[in-house]
Amino acid sequence: MPTMLEKLIEDIHLNGDNRISLIVADLCIGWALNFGAKFGIFALVYNLPKLIDDGIIDSDGVSLINNLMVVLYVTFGSFTHFDQNQFHELALGLDLTNRPFLWVNKLEYPNEFLGTKGNIVGWAPQQKVLSHPAIACFATHCGWNSIMEGLSNGVLLLCWPYFADQLYNKTHICDELKVGLGFEKDKNGLVSREEFKMKVDQFFNDENIKSSAHFLNYLVHHCTPALSLTEWWLSNTAYELEPWMLTLSPKLLPIGPLLRSYDNTNATTLRSLGQFWEEDLSCMSWLDQQPHCSNTYVAFGHKGKIIGWAPQQKVLSHPAVACFISHCGWNSSTECLSNGVPFLCWPYFGDQPYNRKYICYELNVGLGLNSNENGLVSRWEIKKKLNQLLSDENIKSRSLKLKEKVTSNTTNRGQSLENFNKFVKWLKE
């Protein structure tokens, strides 16, 4: 494919006045930039190369910011008052963690408190503290202002609410956004020192939570600022899939799922959007002979084997397909969601691990395949999760209900179609 691209550029430059002025490349075809340099063409590359340049990950995809995010920031606002026993447990809990902390506190702490790992101050410039790369997490009462300051700086939250909207905010953070952990009280109504230590340790040791922290940090510091340079961001998604994401900016316009923009299944000349490989349609006649919901579709992007290339949209819409074992790339995810097919998730890199979490724990329409101690997904794990998925009627039902909601966005009065028309109208003005 690289030699074909080089020849294509040469032919265009030799045979006409329309020369290529810009190459836009995603992470999978970064080699295209070499030809841009050879022919003196400007280039724009997305995702992983930018993360490497910014020092977020190395060339192997390993995070470089773990050692920076080490400090626990603790403050509970001006209106929160601990009783003596609770204050005592909090102070000794900070000692138990044996981790560096910054504690905003004006009260006298107990004699047993050592505080050798921490810094205790009467007041702190919260915005500056939360934006500091040393801060790993924020123990907070979940007041809305504090939440927005924490999230806007890409910091995960340890939630300790007291009253009013703080209790609801904790639920939203921990159960819906999944960007925090909540402290639980014991039978005496106290958050014990052991509970405090356990939740702090869980934050630092849980890879899913770390993934959320890094993804949130990337969104805040790399994606969201780019919005200020644009008039609109067209997104291949739907409100029902990512309602919280679409609240980040009024510039985000959901126009998906794009794959459902046509339903003429008899139009044999149509290809799946964004695909350039020749599709092997032989599998469709084989599927036609199978019972409904009896087959597992397995595809991990263009590295797949058995058949060279499948018409994925047609396969996923076929009634014989019961589930989809996928790497959780967003295009594959939207294709699967729009056809009401449950997932078995096997992510590899980039946004795929986050997409898996969203599919399995937020949308609840799939199961994740877990690696064993050797780093392999075993045959027994695949069999177990496949049987579990195919016998779970709740997942099947949720998948079909979500399909109806998602695909309604591209109908004549659907939100995605209206958003796209809004964008076209803006272009014409």
The SSE order reads: HEHEHEHEEHEHEHEHHEEHEHEHEHEHHH
CATH class of the largest domain: Alpha Beta
Average pLDDT level? 77
Number of helices: 16
- Judged by helices, strands and strand pairing, the structural class is alpha/beta
> Overall 3D geometry?
globular
Reported for the largest beta sheet, the result is: 6 strands, parallel
Predict the CATH topology of the largest domain.
Rossmann fold
Can you tell me the CATH architecture of the largest domain?
Answer: 3-Layer(aba) Sandwich
Q: Percent helix among the residues?
A: 25-40%
How far from one another are the termini?
40 Å
Spatial extent as radius of gyration: 25 Å
Number of separate domains: 3
Strand content: 5-15%
Which strand order spans the largest sheet, edge to edge or round the barrel? 5-4-3-6-7-8
CATH superfamily of the largest domain: Glycogen Phosphorylase B
Secondary structure: number of strands: 14
**Unreliable residue runs:** 260-274
Protein name: UDP-glycosyltransferase 83A1
Organism: Glycine soja
GO molecular function: UDP-glycosyltransferase activity
Family: Belongs to the UDP-glycosyltransferase family.
